[in-house]
Structure formats: structure tokens, C-alpha cells
Backbone:
């Protein structure tokens, strides 16, 4: 059975149909790319999957449960974590604290234990910190653990977002343009990282990306959106040649040349 | 298990607290501290409670509340009614005040915490004013005259203990994983929600806890100053508390304690100047805000690590090590990092700019 399945999923804001009729299916362990021109509705898909928006049509099935009416934190606890296109870190917290926030829901000690520092508090806090540092180690962020997140260089901030997402032990990881603003070397390193964390955490990944070398290099399947509608799906090779995709990206003439 | 509570730091803090308590007790009992200064001392304690509890809401959780005097009023009136009308002991009155404020915090918080920034500020301001109008018109609590002849049950041990409990509870909360959830909500609510933090619950929790301590502050106030009236808890009182918090630094408990103490003293010292008093008071605020935009202390906290760092900087010319000291020994053990550490800052010459 598919880990994630959307049936006729769509959302409209007033008269604007940001997304309509999306049927998406992700098998466990897959790495799927979601591409499309600007304004195609890619991030809208993420916002629907995480519960940021409530769908106005269709439904979302995740791991045998219906989402759609759940709040983002509930969706997160069921096993979907995301990163953001424009980085959203907790800027006033340190690197390790950013990860600890994501551990809070599962591991935080009780409220009274916290207020009065009961013995349980010490054990739990130590466990939370150890787990956070372990994740930082894995993402190569261990040396920066005590720095403020806002002081990290851009590329490391992106890494920290991924580390934070991993901290909530997701089954499905949604990456929103992780390679944005990276140079080719950094993008390559990022591809390696994405592959590595998929292995290590047995993740299913849905990836929005504009950098075609990353999308083509790492994704097994690709879904293409344009104007809120799916226009193609297939392997990277199929997508590369699909005239509708070329048209959506480059306009009609280019597609005529290609075919 | 017991040993972790017997660390040098905790023992030092306990020793300091006991010493302060005894000094206060002796000063009051021997009459060395005359009644005028006693009033200032008690005001300081109550203001510290109010400032620290408001900082939990405004500074650490980032929810701009202007209704703190309202919660103080709930506590003050509840406690005063409990002792004068129902003849309950003071301890019960304080507990009742805390409970009533908690309920009020929940009632106000659940609907208003959906609002952000300015809107929340206006809504909480409205709450304070509604409450005041109600108190004006309920004869059972004295209407405009207020409640008179409340027994002076707020003694030095009560004041000291409740101030310490407030400060420690808030400190324990904000320096913990649960506290991180509060700060995450402050820094980025959307990201917090997506990281699994129930932001609504977190905000309401902070709001209710802040209200509880404000209520306790109100109970202490009512039983020290004999009289409470609706006008005591006008929005001016809320602003006064807000000034302590902003001036000390949104997100610094140390800042709230110091500024609540210092401004109480300053306000008392300027009393002799009559007309000039508010001018000078205002001038101090304006200047501080110009030269220290983040408040006196920003988000800095007094701690043994901070003292150690200051010491190292002063006497060994070593720059501060990091933004936060490790919690566990494992965290700082060498060799736990596979990647190379950041380059050490050289020790020659003046401390580096950070």
C-alpha cells in the first residue's frame, strides 16, 4: 500500500484555483521530484500535505490515515516533516536548540517536572540534548552546535532545517527547494546528503526543486505541475523529453523545436 | 540522584537566598529598615513577580499582552474577598487567587491568542478595562470605593518565598526543552507548528502561567497595602509592568528583576521632586531605549557560566566560549565530533570582536 496517496486533491483561494485534481501516490522508500514553473502550485501541495491549508476538494491518505482536517503539529507527529523554501529557522535559538524544538513533542519532560526540576527532568533533558547532538553530528553541524542559528552561513542553515525536520522522525520528508541559492559543488554535496539520509532513516522523500541537475540526478520519479494541474509524470528521462513539460517551462516554440 | 541537586552552583544560590532572607528579616524585625523603606522593599518584590511573569508572555513567548494588571486585579480581589469576607487563612487566599487568575487567563487566552502583535495587545487591553468596569459596578467588592481594611498578611517570609518561587519557576521553564517551544513560537510560529509544537496550547500555557503569577502578585499587593480599588489596576499599571519588562530586556529574567527593582527605587527617590518626577522618570526611559534598544540586558542572563566568562575575559583576556554552555558532560567531551572544530581564536592581543 502506498505511504501517501492524494485523491483529487485541490484548494481554491476565493476564485483562484491554486491546485486541482491532484492524484499523487508515493510508495514507501521512494524519492519523487515535484517540479513546475513558478506559481505552478508546488509549495501549495506541501502546505496541503502538512495541514497548513485545509483542502477544498479531495483527500489525503497518509499511512492509512486521513489527513486534511489535522493541524500541522498533528501531521508532524504522524510522520510528515518539511523544510521551507525561504529558510525558517528559530533565529534566536542556538543550532542545537533548533533541533531540540523538534524533539520537544516526543521527548520533553512533564510540565511540573520542568517547573520544579524534578529528577525526571534531568534524565529527559539529557536524552533530548544527546539525540539533538547526534543528529547534528550526522549532518556535519556538530561544531556549530552552540552558535546562534542566525549566524550560520546560508548553506548550513539549509542543512540545519533538514536536521530539524529529521528530528521529528518523519516517515515522509518534504524538501522545498533545498538547493536554492547553492553553487554546483554545494548542490552535488546536497544530493549526496539526500541520498544518505534516505538510506539511514528509511525515508520517503518528496522534493521540490528548480535545479534540474539535482532533480534529474536524485529523483526516481517526477511529477510536473503547471497552473495548479498535473501535466506530466514519469522517470527523469521521460520528463526530459515530454513536450508538454518543455512547453510549460520554455513556451510553445521551444517545444516545437524539440519534437 | 540527590547529588545533582547538591552541585556547587545550586548550593551557592541557596546560601545566597538564605542570607538575603535573613538579612531582610533582621532588618525589618530590628526596625533598622524604617516603614518607608519597608514599603519600597515590598513593592520591589511584588513588581519583580509581575515583571517576570509578564516577561514569560511578552518576552519569551512573543505574545504582546497589555492585560497584566487585569490578572493582578483578579488575584487581589479574590484573595481579599477570601480573607475579609470568607475568613479564609492567607495561604488558602493565595491559592484561590492563583486558581482564579488561571481560569481568567484561560478564558481570555483561548480566544485572544489567535490574534497577533498589535491585535492581541488591543484585545488584552480591552480585557483589563472590561474587568475594571465590572469591579466598579459590583457592590460585593466595594464598587468604586474598593475593598478597605484588608489585613496586612503579606509578611517578609511570604513575599520572599513567592518572589523566589516565581523567578525560579519561570527560569526553570524557559531554560528547558519546554521553554524552547515557547521561544520557537516567538521566533517563527509556522515553523514551530511544522516542527510538532502545538502552538496554540503552548501560547495558552504561557499565558495562563503568567496570569497565575500575576494573580499571586495581586494577592500579595492587596494584603500589604490594606486597600484595593478598581483604579489601582487600570491600564497604567499594565504599562508600568510592561516598562519594567521592555527596559530590562524582552527575554531576560535578570533584566526584569533588575529593572523592576531599580525603577521601583528610582520612582521612590524621585518622589521628593514632585512635578519633575515623571519628567525625569520618562527621560531615563527615553535615553535607555535610545542607547540600549534591546533593553538593559537584551536576552542576557546572570549565571555562573556568565560570571566565569566575564572573569576569564577580564583577567585572562579570553573571549567568551560560546552562546550556551553544554548541559551534559558528554556534550563537551573531546573526540565526540568527527568534523574539525572551529578554529580557536588566538590568545594574543585584545579580545576579538564577536
Residues:
Amino acid at each position: 500500500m502506498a505511504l501517501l496517496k492524494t485523491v483529487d486533491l485541490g484548494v481554491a483561494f476565493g476564485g483562484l484555483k491554486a491546485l486541482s485534481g491532484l492524484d499523487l501516490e508515493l510508495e514507501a522508500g521512494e524519492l519523487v521530484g515535484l517540479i513546475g514553473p513558478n506559481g505552478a502550485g508546488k509549495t501549495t501541495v506541501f502546505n496541503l500535505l502538512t495541514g497548513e491549508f485545509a483542502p477544498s476538494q479531495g483527500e489525503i491518505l497518509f499511512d492509512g490515515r486521513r489527513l486534511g482536517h489535522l493541524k500541522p503539529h498533528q501531521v508532524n507527529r504522524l510522520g510528515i516533516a518539511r523544510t521551507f523554501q525561504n529558510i525558517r529557522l528559530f533565529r534566536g535559538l542556538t543550532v542545537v536548540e533548533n533541533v531540540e524544538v523538534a524533539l520537544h513533542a516526543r521527548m520533553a519532560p512533564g510540565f511540573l517536572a520542568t517547573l520544579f526540576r524534578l529528577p525526571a527532568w534531568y534524565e529527559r533533558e539529557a536524552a533530548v540534548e544527546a539525540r539533538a547532538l547526534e543528529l547534528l553530528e550526522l549532518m556535519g553541524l556538530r561544531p556549530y552546535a552552540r552558535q546562534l542559528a542566525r549566524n550560520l552561513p546560508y548553506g548550513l542553515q539549509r542543512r540545519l532545517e533538514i536536521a530539524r525536520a529529521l528530528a521529528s522522525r518523519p516517515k515522509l520528508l518534504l524538501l522545498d527547494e533545498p538547493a536554492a541559492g547553492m553553487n554546483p559543488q554545494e548542490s552535488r554535496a546536497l544530493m549526496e546528503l539526500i541520498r544518505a539520509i534516505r538510506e539511514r532513516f528509511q525515508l520517503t522523500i518528496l522534493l521540490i526543486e528548480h535545479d534540474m541537475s539535482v532533480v534529474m540526478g536524485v529523483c526516481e520519479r517526477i511529477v510536473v505541475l503547471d497552473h495548479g494541474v498535473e501535466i506530466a509524470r514519469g522517470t527523469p528521462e521521460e520528463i526530459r523529453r515530454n513536450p508538454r513539460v518543455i512547453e510549460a517551462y520554455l513556451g510553445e516554440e521551444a517545444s516545437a523545436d524539440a519534437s | 540522584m540527590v547529588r545533582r541537586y547538591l552541585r556547587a552552583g545550586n548550593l551557592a544560590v541557596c546560601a545566597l537566598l538564605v542570607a538575603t532572607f535573613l538579612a531582610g528579616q533582621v532588618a525589618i524585625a530590628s526596625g533598622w529598615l524604617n516603614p518607608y523603606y519597608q514599603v519600597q522593599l515590598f513593592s520591589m518584590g511584588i513588581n519583580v513577580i509581575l515583571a517576570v511573569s509578564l516577561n514569560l508572555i511578552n518576552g519569551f513567548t512573543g505574545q504582546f499582552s497589555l492585560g497584566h494588571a487585569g490578572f493582578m486585579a483578579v488575584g487581589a480581589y479574590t484573595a481579599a474577598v477570601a480573607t475579609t469576607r470568607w475568613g479564609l487563612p492567607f495561604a488558602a487566599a493565595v491559592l484561590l487567587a492563583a486558581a482564579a487568575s488561571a481560569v481568567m487567563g484561560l478564558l481570555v487566552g483561548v480566544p485572544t491568542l489567535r490574534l497577533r502583535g498589535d491585535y492581541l495587545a488591543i484585545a488584552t487591553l480591552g480585557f483589563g478595562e472590561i474587568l475594571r468596569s465590572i469591579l466598579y459596578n459590583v457592590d460585593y467588592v466595594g464598587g468604586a470605593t474598593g475593598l478597605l481594611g484588608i489585613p496586612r498578611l503579606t509578611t517578609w517570609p511570604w513575599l520572599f518565598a513567592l518572589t523566589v518561587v516565581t523567578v525560579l519557576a519561570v527560569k526553570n521553564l524557559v531554560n528547558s526543552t519546554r521553554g524552547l517551544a515557547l521561544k520557537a513560537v516567538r521566533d517563527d510560529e509556522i515553523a514551530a507548528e511544522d516542527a510538532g509544537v502545538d502552538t496554540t496550547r503552548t501560547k495558552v500555557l504561557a499565558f495562563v502561567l503568567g496570569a497565575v503569577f500575576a494573580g499571586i502578585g495581586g494577592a500579595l499587593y492587596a494584603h500589604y497595602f490594606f486597600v484595593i480599588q478598581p483604579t489601582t489596576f487600570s491600564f497604567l499599571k499594565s504599562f508600568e509592568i510592561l516598562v519594567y519588562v521592555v527596559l530590562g530586556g524582552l527575554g531576560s529574567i535578570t533584566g526584569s528583576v533588575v529593572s523592576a527593582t531599580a525603577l521601583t527605587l528610582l520612582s521612590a527617590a524621585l518622589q521628593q521632586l514632585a512635578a519633575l518626577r515623571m519628567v525625569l522618570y520618562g527621560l531615563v526611559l527615553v535615553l535607555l531605549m535610545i542607547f540600549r534598544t534591546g533593553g538593559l540586558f537584551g536576552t542576557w542572563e546572570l549565571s555562573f557560566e556568565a560570571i566565569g566568562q566575564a572573569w576569564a575575559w577580564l583577567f585572562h583576556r579570553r573571549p567568551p566560549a560560546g552562546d550556551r554552555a553544554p548541559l551534559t558532560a558528554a556534550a563537551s567531551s573531546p573526540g565526540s565530533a568527527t568534523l574539525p572544530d572551529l578554529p580557536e581564536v588566538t590568545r594574543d592581543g585584545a579580545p576579538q570582536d564577536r
The first strand of chain A starts at residue 4 and ends at 13. Residues 90-156 of chain A form one domain. Residues 117 and 259 of chain A are 69 Å apart (CA to CA). The radius of gyration of chain A is 19 Å.
